[in-house]
């Protein structure tokens, strides 16, 4: 079952990169906020259908959740909006490596302090070095993208 979850997660990463690329192109025609809106609206329609036919819980229980848990919806929307803004400017790979670096950064902090009922995993120098390498990777990817873009435009 773990292998299946790894494959699903790999597929999620593939779809995220494809989505970022399509969003970047689409946002040039429709606008950044409009592109984000369409994605959220489409998600609402699909999830409503899925809930109607396959839902197992009580949708109204959302209203009883603590406010900090509801913030996840706003964080997801912010992620999508920021990705749609970034891709046309810095490219898909630079955006995704920056996203992963941001995820790793906050994940290390969450693990270190055990926030949101997560395991407590102390921050050590190995994790910091790994994060430093990710930041260096962002720099080189961004510089490479910028150089390629300049060569293409000249």
UniProtKB/TrEMBL annotation:
Q: Which InterPro entries match?
A: YdcZ
Q: Which residues cross the membrane?
A: 36-55, 67-87, 93-113, 125-142
* Pfam families linked: DMT_YdcZ
Is the keyword Cell division assigned to this protein? no
What UniProt keywords apply to this chain's record, in alphabetical order? Membrane, Transmembrane, Transmembrane helix
Q: Name one GO cellular component term.
A: plasma membrane
In its keyword annotation, does this UniProt entry include Cell inner membrane?
Answer: no
> Which PANTHER family is this protein grouped with?
INNER MEMBRANE PROTEIN YDCZ
- The molecule here is called EamA-like transporter family protein
């Amino acid at each position: 079952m773990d292998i299946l979850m790894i494959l699903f997660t790999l597929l999620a990463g593939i779809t995220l990169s494809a989505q970022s690329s399509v969003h970047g192109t689409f946002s040039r025609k429709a606008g950044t906020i409009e592109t984000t809106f369409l994605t959220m609206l489409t998600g609402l329609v699909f999830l409503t259908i899925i809930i109607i036919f396959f839902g197992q819980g009580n949708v109204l229980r959302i209203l009883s959740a603590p406010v900090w848990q509801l913030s996840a919806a706003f964080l997801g929307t912010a992620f999508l909006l920021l990705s749609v803004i970034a891709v046309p400017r810095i490219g898909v790979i630079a955006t995704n490596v920056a996203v992963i670096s941001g995820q790793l950064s906050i994940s290390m902090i969450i693990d270190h302090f055990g926030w949101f009922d997560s395991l407590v995993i102390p921050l050590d120098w190995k994790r910091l070095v790994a994060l430093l390498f990710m930041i260096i990777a962002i720099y080189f990817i961004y510089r490479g993208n910028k150089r390629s873009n300049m060569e293409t435009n000249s």
